[in-house]
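Box S1 | Example of a co-folding query
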Amino acid sequence: MQIAERGRVVDDVADQIGNTPTVDISQFSPNPDVSLFAKLESFNPTGSVKDRVALSLIDQAERDGLLVRGSGGVILEPTSGNTGIGLALIGRLRGYQVKAVMPESVSTERVQLLQGFGAEVIFSAAEKGTNESINVAKELAHENPSYFMPYQYGNKANPQSHYVATGPEIVRDVPDVDMFVAGLGTGGTLMGVGKALREHNPNAKIVAAAPHPDDKVQGLRSIEHGFIPPILDLDALDARIMVEAEESFFWTRKLLLDAGIFVGVSSGAVLASAIRAARRLESGTIVMLFADGGWKYLSTGIYTRDWSDIQNEVEGQTWW
Ligand SMILES: Cc1ncc(COP(=O)(O)O)c(C=O)c1O
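Box S1 (continued) | Returned holo structure for pyridoxal-5'-phosphate
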């Protein structure tokens, strides 16, 4: 058995951000000529891709003089959870207080993780979704000018983290990528990785997995609700594939049962989108980014539910 190259001594856990593994899961491909690879961002210290973004946002703010290490400065961010958890980690390591504004409906695990890392959670009205978290955070920042709001939706340091690291890691690890599929939240992953991949192969297709406008898939957002993050350039996307929540849950569970891959629900949406895309391609290589691990979603019950009742329907939509 080969031992993976992860056993190295680091100064602190932030040094373990990035360089995540990629797994060949072509067994999920409906097309024998299309390979599917999944990059597992759950291997980051807090279990999500957003550790990369949090580190990049804080590094940039320090370079710009907006944050000073050890100063106890306050970082305030509207977040569906993962970015807040990443910020909370880096905040602990560098002496900042972190306040995260989230819809009241987020999973209890997210709230507990944030509080566990010492962050303060501020709730916005659940029924108004993440757009309301953004409004509340903006108001609070306005009332408290000393707070620093990284604002991942509009901060170039977000896509930049993917341009300088996530994308190049994919180019290094998977030869000849024809298509990249990731969930659409802020758009940071798709923009940053997309730019890096296209520099390597101008024909690489960049595809977003988006939730159905009426559905909630934690971590993803629908631009149909009217808010287009400033960092998101829709023209840079080749396609947006809409996935129903149930379909995302089905594939999330199947990933665990058939491949032992324990991921969050947005990864199920990404796999569903990639399966649809694979059907349309003649041949090629698709790389998917699985944004986080499943731990934060255990309380939803999706990993223990029997999904056989919707299997035919879902496989009819996404399978051959
Ligand atoms: C679980 C999960 N998946 C996907 C995304 C989307 O990533 P991005 O913000 O880079 O578009 C997020 C973002 O919050 C997320 O938390």
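Residues 167 and 197 are 6 Å apart (CA to CA). The mean pLDDT is 93.
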